[in-house]
């Protein structure tokens, strides 16, 4: 039952009025109109930092590295696992075309005359952006994932995932790689080429590539789709950070490239070079593990609050609903605006970014919101963008949220026969919301209306310090309306 069907719109206004260098402006009182008067009051708003814990990770980007945030001196480490996608009904050349078939040609050890084999096989991890010193070396190990414990499309994976559970016991790395974002093994002409993309190249044993090709000729149905390929041929790889620090690479896509030689079908005396490519894309599962150290010292800071990603810190806002309504039971609240102001920070090459969007959601709903892949509904959840001009995140109108909370409390007290103090003791988060950094996708219809299509946790490297905390309560200006 919708208990708000006949309720009047309830609005209130929140303004940050604290000593800082940023002018957030003021909120004016509406002019008098026939039969309607306005009044206002100011109440304190409590905010604090809270740990977000493990969050649901997306399958469109991965991170690899180990860095320290110079502003907060907190450490972030990341590694990931990825499956690889194959085109439907992928086909290699006919087996009769594969090299070698000529007994005069050298046959690699452990291969019979009529077997197929690859010339070489590699993994490329492509990246456009990275954080840190591009010259710092890092070392990673690559482990094949298990065929007995495969990432499932029906499961939800979180940022604290133990990736070692997805490799068979006793498995050794199939390859190791020492790398840095700046690849000095390439010539200047290659680096400056318009076709060059930054990548980490990892050479795998030829035997692994040969086994992949043999799997095709044994049963081509193993390559008919990604589901079959992952379960019967290649479950994927775990990219484990072994050592090094000072870099965090944002991996946009990974590929497995298998190189081989085969005979031209038209001119059998000619050989051709072939390559089979399999990519880690959003069509298959990718899962990143994040480890954040020393966050508790930031959470305990009572002089401000934080927004920190990935899988880091959010800002809890306690809406003073009871204080707002005290003595104004017959009034309507006319406007709502919540402003969170960022402290200025020194911007340089090693400063973490600022979240582009944030979500305001009831604390009791913040886990289910992401698990159920919801978008903001302008009732119990709202999104807004960072305003670099004013250094703020502004929620222009959260009136329906306050109305919802107040009505829910009244109906709950009545239906459960609870006093106000009993209700608040039983539901301590009844008036609490959390501000969480998010990535927001939208679409636009033919009339120019913009709609949200997805809201997911922001997994970029971001850190923001906000005005607030126990020692600096925000002040909320509330505007009331009443018919004469």
Number of helices: 8
Element string (H = helix, E = strand): EEEEEEHEHHEEEEHEEHEEEHEEHHEEEE
Low-confidence blocks of residues = 1-28, 101-105
Determine the fraction of residues in helical runs and give it as a percent range.
Answer: 10-25%
Provide an overview of this structure.
The protein is mainly beta. The protein folds into two domains: 36-55 and 294-483, no CATH class; 75-291, no CATH class. Helix content is 13%, strand content 36%. The protein contains eight helices and 22 strands. The protein has helices spanning 188-191, 206-218, 226-232, 296-299, 321-325, 366-371, 399-416, 420-426; strands at residues 36-51, 62-68, 75-82, 120-132, 138-144, 175-179, 199-204, 237-243, 247-263, 271-280, 286-293, 305-309, 313-318, 332-333, 338-341, 357-362, 381-387, 392-395, 432-444, 450-457, 462-466, 474-483. Strands 1, 13, 14, 15, 16, 17, 18, 19, 20 and 22 form a ten-stranded antiparallel sheet that branches. The two termini are 32 Å apart.
